[in-house]
Task: inverse folding
């Protein structure tokens, strides 16, 4: 797998994959399904310095398998960010997002100099919890009515990882 930034040229592929993955994503996630909404989404991820967005792509095809965003990046004594992510249906359950997440962790900790990443996940979203658990995140708590999703305030589990828990050996990704 490889990571690359969001680009406006990816609108057609990304939105087609999002539409094809609607049953996988709902009720957890609502990625852009139309080129116009993708354009605004990609612009926010590429122009806002508190965000870093990545497409997780297969090699050598370049086909988009999913996406991982670091949101709410804060420096100073906090040095933290919040993850948002999703796999597309054709790639789900194949370990591709695990590899992509390992690459994002290295970028966040080594390039951005962050100390901590958080992922807030609805308790019934077993696939998302499995992804972060495999990467070495630890469950730190429960936040009732945390995010407004699909017309309602949703409870979330708070998962986090710090730089000390990431394996940086060549060819490996994930937790120590």
Result:
């Amino acid at each position: 797998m490889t990571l690359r930034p969001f680009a406006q040229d990816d609108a057609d592929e990304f939105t087609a994959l999002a539409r094809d993955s609607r049953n996988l994503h709902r009720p957890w996630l609502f990625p852009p399904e139309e080129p116009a909404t993708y354009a605004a989404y990609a612009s926010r991820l590429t122009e806002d310095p508190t965000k870093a967005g990545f497409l997780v792509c297969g090699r050598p095809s370049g086909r988009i398998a999913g996406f991982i965003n670091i949101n709410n990046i804060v420096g100073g004594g906090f040095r933290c960010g919040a993850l948002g992510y999703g796999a597309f249906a054709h790639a789900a359950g194949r370990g591709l997002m695990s590899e992509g997440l390992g690459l994002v962790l290295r970028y966040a900790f080594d390039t951005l100099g962050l100390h901590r990443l958080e992922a807030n996940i609805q308790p019934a979203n077993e696939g998302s919890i499995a992804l972060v658990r495999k990467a070495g995140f630890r469950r730190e708590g429960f936040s009732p009515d945390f995010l407004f999703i699909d017309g309602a305030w949703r409870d979330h589990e708070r998962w986090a990882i710090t730089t000390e828990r990431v394996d940086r050996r060549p060819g490996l990704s994930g937790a120590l």
About this structure: The first strand starts at residue 2 and ends at 5. The two ends are 20 Å apart (CA to CA). Helices lie at 11-20, 22-25, 35-47, 96-111, 126-135. The longest helix spans residues 96-111.
